[in-house]
Specification:
Distance between the termini: 85 Å
CATH architecture of the largest domain: Beta Barrel
CATH superfamily of the largest domain: monomeric porin ompg
Number of helices: 18
Structural class: alpha+beta
């Protein structure tokens, strides 16, 4: 009679290898070793699962349930590690990926830490992941910064994404990128902004070819790109790619100012290099430019940037090489690629003809939009220009582009200020604070020229005569975009601001004089170089106010603002501005003259002298600003 022990031995000998690998004792052995090594408390594990401290506990920032295998995995790193180890022993599923293939970064790290025995825990083949990783074939990683785009609420602060350099080099446009962005469900700008502020959008990672990102930012939105190569080890790059694959199983609620594109890319880098802890540097807001600066602060971690100009930057650089007569020819051909226009080029040398034809093609493409779908007429015009250019038999001549200041040349985004002055009412002191970003009075280095984007800026004033503290000004949001008139690139100049202001034109001042204001305007601007550089602007404005200081608790009016920005030196800027707004409610008109002189003392310090006349009040003051 066969004993049970003999039957068990025969079963073990005849059992398939995969069943042997699933023996519970080895699973328990690995779990015990993981607990003994306290692996669930190790920095790498916490970064791979995107855990952040929440009081005395942990909570993952991943909001998609598919990212966790334990029921309480989002808040329990230990339970999630145990569940992952158990799942690695699971048989091959009929559908979908095996857990080893869904989470290759976790599997790889635990395998290294616990030295998995392949005879007792077989390693699964992962064809989908291996094909994905092989297509990327990354040997280096860059953080790419796309300059700000004020016409889109989601891009006003700029954008960052990762570029994965293919092994062996070649055409950089064929590299892949890892991008994180909100998945919007509305095209309404106001609803879009509100949802982005309260985290109502899903934020998801995506893998796209680099040429698609350069077309989106450089050609469609006309934004310059800055490519910052990171000094990651081959092992860290491999971990980044593995973890990038894992991100496809989840999403993160998207918040414009905190859990945005730049923050989530930092957490991706932290999972690859656990010595990084850059995400904890941001509490109140995460501004894309600041994330690059944080990475740069790490010694020898970031290489000097590679500048990739936008399509508009290339247009202007090529156009600047033409004479006035050639500019007229290029403009004519860009509007009408007629035989008569081509014939007018014949007196020019071939090199000059080539420049005119290339510029005419630039102008045509800008006028019609950089889109794949174009009218038959546009396609025929482009074809005619390219065919004429090809007949010259000359290689394309790259347009030398003046490299602008990179973002690290600019001041930091947060700012605190201290100052004071005298007014027709007496002396005062002021304390100013602004979380972000830049205003017209500051030197433009590292920022979009002739622009202003401020949110949450507040000026607290103490009146020495009245012995009263009050809010002099609170900018909830102020956006100004000055686009000097250009013969080809036609962009409007506009402004939008909302916040708490003082109605000093009513003869009051202090806490009782505050009211809520909304102001919007549009117009024209132009530039000259009589001294160094000057920008002149004139805007028509609509103005709306609410508050008990107003006669009927509200007022509406219209008027305008005219001003000039003068760069007297590399670190010295003067801004002069005049405003007149008349109101329908018989309120006193708003008349203001303001002159600001700003001197950049160091990269992150600035001194301002201000003369301000808001009839009937007049004042003169000085402010010292520290950026951080």
């Amino acid at each position: 009679m066969t004993t049970p022990r003999v039957l068990l031995a025969l079963a073990l000998l005849l059992a398939p290898r995969g069943l042997l690998a699933a023996e519970p004792s080895y699973r328990e052995e690995l779990s015990a070793r993981a607990r003994g090594l306290r692996l669930s408390s190790e920095r790498k594990w916490l970064k791979l699962l995107h855990y952040r401290p929440k009081g005395e506990a942990w909570r993952s920032e991943a909001d998609g349930g598919g990212f966790f295998l334990a029921p309480d995995g989002r808040t329990n790193p230990g339970a999630e590690l145990e569940a992952d180890l158990a799942a690695f022993f699971a048989p091959e599923p009929e559908k979908g990926q095996h857990p080893q293939c869904r989470f290759p970064a976790r599997y790889h790290w635990l395998k290294e830490k616990l030295s998995f025995d392949p005879a007792r825990l077989p390693e699964r083949t992962c064809p989908d992941f291996e094909a994905w990783r092989g297509a990327i074939d990354a040997e280096a990683v860059s953080v790419v910064f796309a300059s700000a785009f004020l016409n889109n609420p989601a891009s006003m602060y700029g954008h960052t994404f990762l570029r994965l350099h293919r092994r062996g080099g070649g055409d950089a446009l064929l590299d892949y990128t890892i991008n994180f962005a909100a998945t919007p469900d509305t095209s309404n700008a106001l609803v879009y902004t509100l949802k982005g502020l309260n985290g109502s959008f899903k934020g998801e990672y995506s893998l796209l070819p680099f040429y698609m990102k350069t077309q989106e930012y450089g050609s469609l939105e006309m934004r310059d790109l800055w490519d910052y190569r990171l000094n990651l080890t081959p092992g860290q790059i491999a971990d980044l790619v593995r973890h990038g694959w894992e991100m496809g199983s989840t999403h993160f609620n998207y918040y414009f100012f905190t859990k945005n594109c730049s923050y989530q890319l930092l957490t991706l880098l932290e999972a690859a290099d656990e010595t990084l802890d850059v995400g904890s540097d941001f509490v109140w807001s995460v501004i894309p430019a600041d994330t690059v600066r944080v990475l740069q602060a790490r010694p020898r971690f970031v290489e000097p940037p590679l500048y990739r100009p936008s399509f508009v930057s290339e247009i202007k650089a090529r156009r600047a090489r033409m004479s006035p007569e050639e500019l007229v020819l290029a403009t004519r051909l860009g509007r009408d690629a007629s035989p008569e226009g081509f014939k007018s080029l014949e007196p020019l040398p071939k090199e000059r003809q080539a420049l005119v034809l290339e510029s005419a093609n630039d102008y045509l493409r800008y006028r019609k939009g950089y889109y794949i779908e174009q009218s038959t007429e546009t396609f025929l015009a482009i074809h005619a220009l390219l065919r004429a250019r090809g007949r010259l038999g000359l290689p394309p001549a790259p347009a030398p582009i003046e490299r602008p200041f990179p973002l690290e040349a600019g001041h930091d985004t947060a700012r605190v200020g201290l100052g004071g002055g005298i007014s027709s009412r007496g002396s005062f002191e002021e304390l100013a604070w602004r979380p972000s970003l830049h205003d017209l009075s500051s030197v433009d280095e590292g920022y979009i020229p002739d622009s202003q984007l401020e949110m949450g800026a507040v000026r607290l004033r103490f009146d020495n005569d009245a012995r009263e503290p009050y809010i002099e000004r609170l900018d909830i949001a102020t956006i100004i975009s000055m686009s000097p008139w250009d013969p080809w690139v036609r962009k409007p100049s506009w402004k939008l601001s909302t916040g708490v202001d003082q109605a000093k034109e009513l003869g009051c001042a202090g806490a009782s004089c505050m009211y809520y204001n909304v102001n919007a305007g549009g117009g024209l601007s132009a530039q000259s170089r009589l001294w160094r550089r000057e920008v002149y602007y004139a805007l028509a404005e609509a103005d709306l106010g609410f508050g008990p200081v107003l006669a009927q608790d509200w007022r509406a009016g219209a008027g305008g603002t005219a001003g000039v920005i003068v760069d007297l030196a590399a670190r010295w800027r003067i801004l002069g501005e005049a405003t007149y707004i008349d109101y329908a409610q018989r309120s006193a008109p708003r008349q203001r003259l303001r002159l600001t002189s700003s001197v950049r003392l160091t990269r992150d310090t600035e001194l301002r002298l201000i003369l301000d006349r808001r009839s009937p009040d007049q004042e003169a003051g000085a402010m010292f600003y520290l950026f951080f």
